[in-house]
Design goal:
Layout: H1 2-14, H2 23-38, H3 54-57, H4 71-75, E1 85-90, E2 93-94, E3 109-112, H5 113-119, H6 121-127, H7 138-145, E4 151-155, E5 165-172, E6 178-180, E7 183-188, E8 193-203, E9 208-218, E10 223-231, E11 236-246, E12 251-260, E13 263-272, E14 278-285, E15 292-301, E16 307-316, E17 321-330, E18 338-347, E19 353-362, E20 368-376, H8 380-387, H9 393-409, H10 415-430
Parallel strand pairs: 1-5, 4-7, 5-8, 6-9, 7-9, 8-10, 9-11, 10-12, 11-13, 12-14, 13-15, 14-16, 15-17, 16-18, 17-19, 18-20
Antiparallel strand pairs: 1-2, 3-4
Helix pairs in contact: 2-7, 5-6, 8-9, 9-10
Length: about 425
């Protein structure tokens, strides 16, 4: 697959003569060199010890797979009753005919990447590929090398975007094996506010590989809510990285919910690069069958007097596997830091497994930090309590699992999204 990707990059270069010599072109050329140097990670790499990517790269993918979606098909994939700006991508390709923007341009500007380079060159150059690490991560380098389609979301200083922004990514693998590499850039300028939902869906039974990368810049005093929902098929391979940089007095609020997907790897990296920053990270994953879900988080406190709180919860069933690797860094200058991390898991089957590794690296002495993890079976006392009150065993188990998941779902601040996920997850857990 590596050779196929390198050949595809050369073919892409030959079709883009007009862009030669631009800043983006130079970044893309450097990115493909880094990918060629790094190659795909193996389980010998510490960061990929429990996530084997060989099932992804054994397939041959169609880089020109048809990208179309009818209006009726689109409606079936949307969150019911969610009044929001909608940006649609099919197989990684922007679909202007299906995109619907309802917020005024005075408070929100959305372009695809090609438009952003032309119409917002200064903003684009100031933020694109400035925080994502090309030299350490092969999938980041690969996404950057093929960066063509994606969303550039800009919120001007002082503006409050009343309606959420939904980025719908559909992989249509009904006719062929497909690959999609969307690249997003979200810039919330000083004292602005915005809510963004990345929604990943899939159609078809052919293998489908999504390699997504989103960079988020949160300026001083800005507030960003970021949601990521993954509801993909058994043949879906998803690797997604979200790279966040915060300035002083800013707030970043994140919730990641993985409902379905054959292989899922989520990287969430946050740098608190200013005083009085606040970051909240919540996650929920519910693999079953042979599904694999891996959540890697890194919270880097580089300046004093900042706060972070992290809670990830998982419910593993059948032969599924889960991974959580959470890192907190407190740099020498980051005195008065408060950082907390917790990972909790329920194992419902003797064949399911969970690998969890919370980590703290503290280089300052005046801080309050904690981390912890629990993995176990369902609480038998709570189950007995419900059954003693006339509730059947399966219904009682479903009630306990829904309550367990509720700690994360209750953090969702978009009512229509919260209601949708509550019903979806209750239905999935109730069928077990």
């Amino acid at each position: 697959m590596k050779e196929q990707l390198l050949a595809q990059f050369e073919a892409l270069e030959s079709r883009q003569v007009d862009g030669a010599g631009t800043a983006l072109h130079r970044i893309r050329k450097e990115a493909i060199r880094q990918f060629d140097r790094l190659g795909f990670p193996t389980t010998r790499h510490e960061e990929w010890k429990y996530s084997n990517v060989s099932p992804i790269i054994k397939h041959t993918y169609d880089f020109q797979a048809p990208a179309s979606l009818s209006g009726s098909e689109l409606n079936a994939l949307l969150i019911p009753d969610l009044d929001a700006n909608l940006v649609v991508f099919v197989n990684g390709v922007y679909q202007p005919s299906l995109t619907k923007l309802i917020s005024p341009e005075t408070e929100l500007r959305i372009f695809n990447l090609q438009e952003a380079q032309e119409w917002e060159p200064a903003r684009f150059a100031a933020h694109f590929a400035q925080s994502a690490n090309l030299e350490a991560d092969a999938f980041t380098a690969l996404n950057t090398a093929f960066a063509q389609h994606g969303a550039f979301i800009a919120v001007p200083a002082g503006k409050v975007v009343e309606k959420p922004v939904v980025l719908l990514y559909l992989t249509d693998a009904r006719a062929a094996n497909v690959v999609a590499q969307p690249r997003n850039l979200i810039v919330a300028e000083k004292s602005s506010q915005v809510k963004v939902l990345e929604l990943f869906r899939s159609l078809g039974d052919h293998p489908q590989f999504t390699n997504a990368l989103t960079e988020v810049s949160v300026d001083s005093g800005a507030y960003v809510e970021y949601y990521k929902v993954q509801e993909q098929g058994e043949q879906a391979y998803h690797i997604g990285t979200t790279q966040v940089t915060q300035q002083g007095n800013s707030h970043f609020y994140s919730t990641t919910v993985t409902v379905n997907g054959g292989f899922t790897r989520n990287n969430l990296n946050i740098v608190l690069d200013g005083e009085y920053c606040e970051a909240n990270l919540f996650g929920l994953y519910l693999p079953d069958g042979k599904q694999h879900v891996d959540n890697h988080t890194a919270v880097d406190h580089s300046k004093p007097r900042s706060y972070s709180n992290e809670l990830y919860k998982g419910i593993m069933n059948d032969r599924s596997t889960g991974v959580f690797n959470g890192k907190i860094f407190v740099r020498p200058d980051a005195q008065k830091t408060n950082a907390f991390q917790s990972n909790r898991n329920i194992i419902l089957s003797n064949d399911a497994s969970m690998n969890t590794k919370p980590q703290l690296e503290i280089f300052a002495d005046d801080v309050k930090c904690s981390h912890g993890t629990t993995t176990g079976q369902m609480d038998e006392d709570a189950l007995f309590y419900l059954r003693a009150r006339g509730i059947g065993e399966e219904h009682a188990k479903a009630l306990l699992m829904v309550a367990f998941a509720g700690d994360v779902l209750n953090q969702i601040k978009i009512p229509a999204l919260q209601e949708y996920l509550e019903h979806l997850i209750a239905e999935k857990l109730g069928k077990r």
